[in-house]
Design goal:
single chain, alpha/beta, Arginase, Chain A, two-stranded antiparallel sheet, 12 helices, 12 strands, about 35% helix, about 15% strand, metal-binding, His_deacetylse_dom, repressor, zinc, Histone deacetylase domain-containing protein
């Protein structure tokens, strides 16, 4: 993993055991990755501030660091799910590709910041030397994963990328994100013939950049299940509340599901059944994009939710079922957050087990369950459901 030779690194990553006869239902998950993305150095400090107060002997790594991705790669290479994984080498995006989602002025700002040695984009978001190249790799790798599906080379792709992207808006970065990897892939799908794309974002934070990018569109159904955190400043003006429903012809196609802290497996499952599934059923997309962040896990330092491996596995199964029913199985998975270095990898494994519709868990949960009480979450979800059905036109259609 630490080889100095990029060619050797890529060869190492692409090697994989021969699949052990996965069922026709299971398919393969085509994972797109490039080790160059590990070179994004977010530094050390007090959590994600980059600050050294001068009185601490041990400064922790920024939560969005390469260790988290190394463990995700290794669990997919050596964990029980490895026979069902096919590895593909990522590539950098071209500037022209970025302009399908981002404003020219913003891209110019990032290029200039890179040329000058880096820049603090906003709180906790550092474009350091080498970061721009990693951002280009993340964007291009995600586009390659989508193209793989569009070209009919495989039905399920997973873009294992960093820096993350779903907070990046058309004209500004935010929340550790520079380029909106998922948003670029959605626009690519639309530009290459897809009529409707459904985006389900389960990262613990509101996917505000992706939502903003398609806020006026009825071609993209953007659903975000997130912690009820609200806005965190000028870089993240959106609040992720239920009344941020889209605008113009896009009204009703941006559905936010802000969940109470500690919602847990049963609460997320209830939200999926009561809110996500009915909306997707009515929208009938051509392709689905599952935006994953394991920061909604029970032990993540950046979230306050209580999902365990079982919860992630159930979400994966639900999304696969929707993709099979409406999209001929076509599903792109895009990596976002997830900051517990070990548990994030385990939860990723569980998500992919769910997507693969594997009958019994391949990997047990090493930390097990966090106590949860779904009663309050269910009340909140029922309230959101009532609001959406009475406000969103396409959800009222019989």
């Amino acid at each position: 993993m630490d080889s100095a030779n990029p060619a050797e690194q890529s060869e190492t990553i692409l090697s994989n055991p021969t699949p052990s006869s996965p069922s026709t239902k299971t398919e393969l998950i085509h994972v797109f990755f490039h080790e160059g993305m590990l070179n994004h150095d977010t530094g050390k400090g007090v959590f994600d501030t980059g600050m050294d107060p001068g009185f601490l002997d041990v400064l922790e790594k920024h939560p969005e660091n390469s260790d988290r991705i190394k463990n995700m790669v290794s669990i997919l290479k050596r964990g029980p799910v490895s026979p069902f994984i096919s590895w593909h080498l990522g590539r950098p995006a071209q500037i022209s590709e970025l302009l399908t989602f981002h404003a020219q002025e913003y891209i110019n700002e990032l290029v200039e910041a890179d040329r000058e040695g880096g820049k603090i984009i906003c709180a906790g978001t550092f474009l350091n030397p080498g970061s721009w190249d990693c951002a280009l790799l993340a964007a291009g790798t995600t586009l390659s994963a989508m193209k793989h599906i569009i070209d009919g080379c495989g039905k399920i792709s997973y873009a294992l990328v960093r820096p993350p992207g779903h907070h990046a808006q058309s004209n500004q970065g935010d929340g550790y994100c520079f380029l909106n990897n998922a948003g670029l892939s959605v626009q690519y799908a639309l530009n290459t013939g897809c009529r409707k794309v459904a985006v389900i974002d389960i990262d613990v934070h509101y996917g505000n950049g992706t939502a903003e990018g398609f806020y006026d569109s009825d071609e993209v159904l953007a659903i975000s299940l997130h912690m009820n955190h609200g806005s965190w400043g000028p870089s993240h003006p959106q609040c992720g509340t239920i009344d941020e429903l889209g605008a113009g012809k896009g009204f009703g196609y941006n559905l936010n599901i802000p969940l109470p802290n500690g919602t847990g497996d049963r609460g997320y499952g209830y939200a999926m059944r009561q809110l996500v599934v009915p909306a997707v059923e009515k929208f009938k997309p051509d392709i689905m994009v599952l935006v994953i962040g394991q920061d909604s896990s029970a032990f993540d330092p950046n979230g306050r939710q209580c999902l365990t491996m079982d919860g992630y596995r159930d979400i994966g199964q639900t999304i696969r079922g929707l993709a099979d029913k409406h999209c001929h199985g076509r599903l792109l998975i895009v990596q976002e957050g997830g900051y517990h270095v070990t548990y994030s990898a385990y939860c990723l494994h569980a998500i992919l087990e769910g997507v693969l519709i594997i009958p019994a868990p391949l990997l047990s949960d090493p930390i097990a369950y966090y106590p949860e009480d779904e009663a309050f979450s269910i009340k909140v979800i029922e309230s959101i459901k009532h609001y959406q059905i009475n406000t969103v036109p396409f959800l009222r259609e019989v």
